[in-house]
Design brief:
Largest sheet of chain A: 2 strands, antiparallel
Strand order of the largest sheet of chain B: 2-1-10-5-6
Strand content of chain B: 25-35%
CATH class of chain B: Alpha Beta
Distance between the termini of chain B: 56 Å
CATH superfamily of chain B: Oxidoreductase, molybdopterin-binding domain
Number of helices of chain B: 6
Radius of gyration of chain B: 23 Å
Largest sheet of chain B: 5 strands, mixed
Largest interface: A-B, 51 and 58 residues
Shape of chain B: globular
CATH topology of chain A: Fumarate Reductase Cytochrome B subunit
Helix content of chain B: 25-40%
Oligomer: heterodimer
Chain lengths: 241, 263
């Protein structure tokens, strides 16, 4: 893709080992958490607002017939097994997030790569436009939209899905009685848990699409080996056409 | 150049194809986890030990479950599981308004005893408005009234060897070829002596209805609904679960659910 007026992209070491390992642990645990969560949801496929479920009054916000067997773990109705799988991977998911924050703070991934700068805010709209036009550059650093998406998942969606999950535990309700309160009650927390699952699903689909469109080989190499080839850049002094 | 395009396209096609079949193959392929003795399941289930130990660490012995106000009671207590009973013994008790009912408390106790409903009503009373959380996912708020289990245990004197309180119930939750399986559930002595753990004989200011477990059900407010056995016939103090069901200490624990249901 290079021509005489460009310098070829460099092969840089982009992703640190801690980032790569935690990324794949998340990928695997979410692959189990989502279908086992749908299994648990199927035991009572109605979502409500408030502390309780209305049986003689209506506070439902969503009523579904339940998810089909090909998206649940296990594939047949089995709440007990769904809970075994869900809580096992929930522990892994939570410990992985704590490990990620600790390691990414000490290796400065959080500060250097994920924290938005003034420059990011300035170029955010342009970056959204570029992504919509599928003009996907390969910079040394994350683009403003990437920072927004990854930051949103790591700092908003992940903590939200964990804290709303904890709200559903009667034991944790006794430990942290204020936690379901801030979400508006246990059943609202359950509804938010479901909504965040949908958002994470949307992120997953877009994330995969971006990898495919941006060049799956280079993208996968960076999250497996750490090495990433940046886009060719115009030669210094040559005019930009 | 063209080589790169082909391999990239092939990679794309291959990755999309595998991504599409992953859930299909994946979920059926994991059905082996349903088998109780499967080694992978046994490994995963150890996360529940981590959960119960963590909760025990974070919760002091008498830290209370959230309580609610009268205004939060918006419906009668929803009932599932057994909601009516057909056994002759229970039918006879029901007919006489449970006047002949005697709660038997035995096992590893100093002074085995029987309690009528009147006896229980004359003991200390605790009233609490709490939220009942079912393992299925629904919740319901109701006002429960009964005698703290601790008071009953003090009356009979728990032997030092006792570790669990076992509830033997009237309701046949399952009928098999070898006969009826009566509901059974157990809690440890920490939960048994918790101030909110009561033997409830009233809900929402009325005697406990049949559907909610008349004449007596236990409330274990820091755990899920299935721990709160209904239709209690007999209480037994035990040291271990070896002689109970399949050895996991409760009807649902014997069927793959967590014995500790704080999650």
């Amino acid at each position: 893709m290079t021509n005489s007026s460009q310098v070829p992209g460099r092969l840089i070491r982009r992703q640190k080992l801690a980032t790569r390992i935690t990324h794949w642990i998340w990928a695997i645990s979410l692959l189990f958490l989502l279908p086992s969560g749908l299994q648990i949801f199927n035991a009572h496929p109605i979502l409500y607002l408030g502390d309780q479920s209305g049986f003689t009054f209506d506070n439902a916000v969503l009523r579904l017939a339940g998810f089909p067997g090909w998206v649940t773990i296990p594939s047949t109705r089995d709440l007990a097994t769904g809970r075994v799988v869900h809580f096992f991977f929930a522990w892994i998911f939570v410990l992985n997030l704590l490990a990620f924050f600790a390691m990414s703070w000490s290796n400065r991934h959080l500060q250097k790569d994920l924290t938005p700068t003034a420059n990011d805010t300035q170029h955010f709209v342009q970056d959204v436009r570029d992504h919509l036009n599928l003009k996907l550059g390969h910079g040394v650093r994350y683009s403003p939209l990437q920072k927004f998406a990854y930051g949103g998942v790591l700092f908003v969606l992940f903590p939200l899905i964990i804290s709303t999950g904890l709200c559903m535990s009667p034991g944790m309700n006794a430990v942290l009685p204020w936690l379901p309160e801030i979400f508006g009650g246990r059943q609202t927390a359950r509804t938010i848990h479901f909504a965040v699952m949908v958002l994470l699903g949307v992120f997953f689909v877009v994330h995969l699409a971006m990898i495919v469109l941006a060049g799956p080989f280079n993208e996968l190499r960076s999250i497996v080996t750490g090495y990433y080839r940046t886009s060719p850049r115009p030669k210094k002094g040559s005019c930009d056409v | 150049m063209s080589k790169v395009i082909i391999s990239r396209r092939a990679l794309l096609r291959a990755s999309l194809a595998s991504a599409a079949t992953l859930p299909l193959a994946g979920c059926k392929a994991l059905d082996f986890l349903r088998e109780r003795e499967n080694a992978m399941r046994q490994f995963m289930i150890r996360a529940n030990t981590l959960t119960s130990r963590t909760q025990r660490l974070l919760l002091s012995a008498d830290q209370l479950a959230p309580e609610f106000s009268e205004a939060d009671i918006r419906q009668s207590q929803f009932a599932n599981g057994s909601t009516d009973l057909s056994g002759a013994e229970y039918a006879a008790l029901k007919e006489k308004n449970f006047d002949a009912y005697r709660l038997q408390v035995g096992g590893l106790v100093e002074r085995p005893a029987e309690f009528s409903l009147a006896d229980l009503r004359n003991m200390p009373v605790r009233t609490q408005i709490t939220r009942h959380d079912c393992v299925e996912g629904w919740s319901c708020i109701a006002k429960w009234q009964g005698v703290p289990l601790c008071a009953v245990l003090n009356r009979v004197g728990v032997k030092p060897t006792a570790r669990y309180v076992m509830f033997h119930c009237f309701d046949a939750i399952e009928r098999t070829l070898s006969g009826e399986v009566l509901y059974y559930e157990s809690i440890d002595l920490i939960d048994a002596r918790h101030p909110q753990t009561i033997l409830a004989y009233a809900v929402n200011d009325r005697p406990l209805p049949i559907a909610n477990g008349a004449p007596l059900r236990v409330r274990v407010e820091r755990q899920l609904g299935y721990k709160m056995a209904k239709y209690i016939a007999r209480i037994e103090l035990i040291a271990d679960f070896s002689r109970i069901g399949n050895g996991h200490g409760s009807y649902w624990a014997d069927r793959g659910y967590e014995w500790f249901a704080g999650i």
